[in-house]
Amino acid sequence: MVDLEGLAKGGSVEASLLKRIDPEKLPRHVAVIMDGNGRWAGERNLPRAAGHRAGIGSVREIVEISAQLGLQVLTLYAFSVENWKRPRSEIRKTFTRTRSASRPSEGSRSSSRRYNASWNAPFAKLATTLA
């Protein structure tokens, strides 16, 4: 049984939503398509890197909450075919940041959980790009 207590501050909107969750009905696998970090930054007149940093914050939050909810599988689609057309340095930074964000942070409630992160990418192209 998943303990939902403490996942949100008492009296918050999130706490009221958590009360409505039936832990027995949570899915085993959730998939999230991460898209639009560059557009988000552009709309705010920020550099693309600021959008990527904001996206990494979202990845961290999704990983942590998914672990705390006891989800068995989390899939993040974070890199599209179009992303390969970007400069090599941007691709390298995106992969490095996403990989580090997909692990629980030190001292988090879920840091003691076992994680099995896998990367599903065209590895020949990835190895060439990251080298």
β-strand number: 2
Specify the number of helices: 5
Average pLDDT over all residues: 77
Structural class: mainly alpha
* Domains, number: 1
CATH architecture: 3-Layer(aba) Sandwich
Question: How are helices and strands ordered from N to C?
Answer: HEHHEHH
Report how far apart the termini are. 44 Å
Q: Main beta sheet, described? A: 2 strands, parallel
The main sheet orders its strands as 1-2
**CATH level-3 fold name:** Undecaprenyl pyrophosphate synthetase
What is the class in the CATH system? Alpha Beta
Radius of gyration over alpha carbons? Answer: 17 Å
Give the full name of the CATH homologous superfamily. Decaprenyl diphosphate synthase-like
Assign an overall shape. elongated
Strand content: 5-15%
How does this model look, in words?
It is built from 5 helices and 2 strands; from the N terminus they run αβααβαα. With 131 residues, the protein is mostly helical. It has one domain: Decaprenyl diphosphate synthase-like (Undecaprenyl pyrophosphate synthetase). It has a two-stranded parallel ribbon with strand order 1-2. The longest helix has 22 residues. The model has no long low-confidence stretch (mean pLDDT 77).
Please provide a brief summary of the model:
The protein is mainly alpha-helical and 131 residues long. 44% of the residues lie in helices and 8% in strands.
